[in-house]
Amino acid sequence: MPATTGITRFQGYHAVSSVSRETEHRRETVRKILVFAAPLLVLAASGGIVFALFAAKPEPEKEESGPRPISLFVDEVRQEPVTLTVTTQGEIRPLAEIDLVPQVAGRIVYVAPEFVEGGIVEAGEVLVRIEDSDYGLAIIRAEARVAEAELKLARQEADAEIVAKQWKWEKLENDEPTALGLRKPQVAEARAQVKAAEADLEAARLDLQRTKITVPFKGRVREKLVDIGQYVTPGTKLGRAFSTEVVEVRLPLTDTQMASIGLPIAFHAEPGEEGPIVSFHAAIGGAERTWIGHITRTDAAIDRQTRLMYAIAEVEDPYGAGADSGVPLPVGLFVSAEIAGRSLAEAYVLPRAALRTRSQVFVVDADNLLRIRSVDVVHMDDQRVILLDGVEEGEQVVVSPVQAPREGMPVTPLRRQSAQHLAKLSQ
To answer: Which of 43, 162, 186, 193 measures 20 to 30 Å from 26, CA to CA?
Structure first.
């Protein structure tokens, strides 16, 4: 009986333990399920709340509106008298430049102090002198031949006179003397010999004069190639000099620029006539200098390579009266040139930025709508455009870039002065 009772208690205890473990296992399973399911439940609840809020929100009212106007900078068209100006460039070159070349041979015995590179020379000044002893002797010999020829002529004339008198004394009827009998050919020959001897004398005197090398103008020496003691022959180059009395500049011009100047293709100024005024500009010694000249002619033909016409402008006395405050216009200087062209009593002036392609501008009308206009361009440079028609005074033209422009596009015009004022306020 006691043994049976112990077994029964053990079995009861074992049954209770099994139930406890099963219960604990169930609790653990439920706990794990709650751990994983709780976030999902929170997300689901949140999504439901958001969905409910969006569903309860009223729909926004739809507003029917057109395209938003773009802002563009504009400037005002001005109508005023205008003198057209053409800008070009060129290099200063002398009007006259020569090589110094002797016409006689000999040894150089004198070189002027001014005959150096950059030297200033006057017209007729002797720069080089060749030894003239031989040429002086040649004159003496030529004078002797002249005297000899004159003596022969005198003898022939005397003989001819005697023959003529004898013929008169011994004259027979119907009998005429011949020219040879009267010694006329001999006299003519003697006279020709006198002239030949005098020509030789003149040639000898010219050779003596040619031993002195001079220049026919006031100018400067560009190059010196000889010195004292050197023997030279006819054709030897002694040096090079150019005139400073007048310099010229070849100015390239397009057909449009020539029209702006009003210059015909075959222009040539008559003596006393002044062509269009040209202002030449260049920086010398750190300062901007200006010289004034005139167009005197155009080239005979259009340049084949550039297809441009060249106008030639001249500046008188560039090292003297034509200098700018004592600064001369030197040969070889590259200058910019402004040519005064035609004068227009009434023309429309626009900023250069207002021109689109080569014949269109954008105008903003009174309703702030963009209008595309075709215009007649008379002249343009880096700063402005000159028109004869296509716009009216006071109209607003667009000066800023426009993407995909179209006729009638709404815009908001901004004046440049207003934009600058706003920029200053923002600073």
So the answer is: 43
